[in-house]
């Protein structure tokens, strides 16, 4: 539905997908009775962290390797609101790239199966202190890319 | 620097601008010592609320008129981090549109005068309960547009 | 360990208990690498909402009955920090009271089984608009007290 | 009005006071139209940071000296709600202690001059990595206590 800004090259591995379920909290709802738009970075981060943990490229993996991966772009398309105590699913896809970056797209789906919000994020890998961008991904990430290419993440 | 997605028609009034100053709070900084990316919706909202209050199109004005203006798109380009206790300025520009929407662009400037984050937001005016989009802006907003067009907001 | 300020009368029903599990999120951790103290109201609310949902006295039940239950007192004793991605359990106990109030105590337990934070909250039932305190609990809550007294919540 | 748990010894310097003004933000208000109780740690921290900056005992001072001062107790008495866009003042008093701790009381005052929330916090000074409690305050803090005792903070 929504175009993201990533280049997809032919003959590259398909995206890695993950999803988490969550319920709207009281504190997330504004005075209009809907989730405040500023809570959605947290929703996207939830699934991004979970995807990272699953595939060995989470915050703790980056920390251990002394690499940070701050966001460079973050985009939201809000289509429908979420309301108090509503259950929803946050889906993420990590798109193939051999550069020192992470390209993800997101979809939030409500209990009726409707797409309520979509979006994307771009992270660049940097040296944490000076925030200088890495030219190539660190070894642990290259090993992850190799496993991905060899389709070791089936299922 | 960053292109926004709004159409700008010739011979329309120039944007209305506003700025607020703020200091990075302890609670806004993450374990890497920089402002967590998810705090920036709050930064943008700060200046958006202040601009709305100044020109008579703030949340309380919309509430009183029984119209809501939820965000439909929100975009961030993170260029440089902000650190603990750093002072910064958040600038916003409201761009001319005769539709029932609000188009804003944002810039965050640090104490060195550097652009650290830019972005934009699109809001649609809706009936609050059903979230149905208005065809035309409500009367108070049309009156605001008229004052804008007549350049009543100089200075 | 920690004394709470509630009077416990003899021959009243024992507390109702509930617990939820959660994992420390990236956004919850401060620049010292530990959960910022200001996130704990959210942790306590998580278990309080879950306990409320389980026993039919959650936010949505109060909303439906046009009663609010804002906090009057909230207290935290921070004993040990929680760190990034740590798993923990939040336990709550609702203590018997026939007044139009809710008295809860809380305990947060880390993966090593250590008590990291304890606390309590007091809520008063009010009419939402004017915040005037109710003299007696609303009928749905009295029915809940009756079920509690009759030990219908075993297990 | 509200008793705090600190011992006040005779013939010790009077408290140091500070206040900041703030306006209720849209994001701070819940679905009942009042500030969510969990935002108040941020309000207390605002004035605590400002007081710390003024007297040279802020977060950055502690960081520089490699000492942390995490909260051990935090208490809120909520008396009246704050509503959307309401202006209010947060007042803090730092109470004299020669131990490696910080004892503060807080008051939030609305535009009508009414006390809406009061509370207190206790911080213990610790070595940041292991969180071991210091026996005595670090030298920079002892120098601060000396200036306080000599009434160098008049006005």
Could you please describe the fold and organization of this structure?
The structure is a homotetramer of 155-residue chains. By secondary structure, the first copy, chain A, is of the alpha+beta class. Chain A has one domain (16-149): Roll (Thiol Ester Dehydrase, Chain A). Chain A contains 3 helices and 5 strands, in the order βααββββα. Chain A has helices spanning 40-55, 59-64, 139-149, and strands at 16-23, 71-78, 87-95, 101-110, 115-124. A 5-stranded antiparallel β-sheet of chain A has the order 1-3-4-5-2, covered by helices on one side. In chain A, a hairpin with a 5-residue loop joins strand 3 (87-95) and strand 4 (101-110). The longest helix of chain A is centred in the first third of the chain and has 16 residues, at 40-55. The radius of gyration of chain A is 16 Å and the shape is globular. The first copy, chain A, starts with 15 loop residues before the first strand and ends in a 6-residue tail after the last helix. The mean pLDDT of chain A is 93. Chains in contact: A-B, A-C, A-D, B-C, B-D, C-D. Chains A and D meet through loops of A and loops of D. Strand 2 of chain A pairs antiparallel with strand 2 (71-78) of chain B, so a sheet runs across the interface.
Major sheet characteristics of chain A: 5 strands, antiparallel
User: Over the alpha carbons, how many angstroms does the gyration radius of chain A reach?
Assistant: 16 Å
Amino-to-carboxy terminus distance of chain A? 25 Å
The CATH architecture assignment of chain A turns out to be Roll
Specify the CATH class of chain A.
Answer: Alpha Beta
User: What sequence of helices (H) and strands (E) makes up the elements of chain A?
Assistant: EHHEEEEH
* Number of discrete helical segments of chain A: 3
Task: Tell me roughly what share of residues is in helical segments of chain A.
Answer: 10-25%
- CATH homologous superfamily descriptor of chain A: Hotdog Thioesterase
Inertia-based shape of chain A? globular
Largest interface: pair, residues per side: A-B, 23 and 23 residues
User: Which segments of chain A are poorly predicted (pLDDT under 50) over 5 or more consecutive residues?
Assistant: none
Oligomer: homotetramer
Structural class of chain A: alpha+beta
The total of beta strands of chain A comes to 5
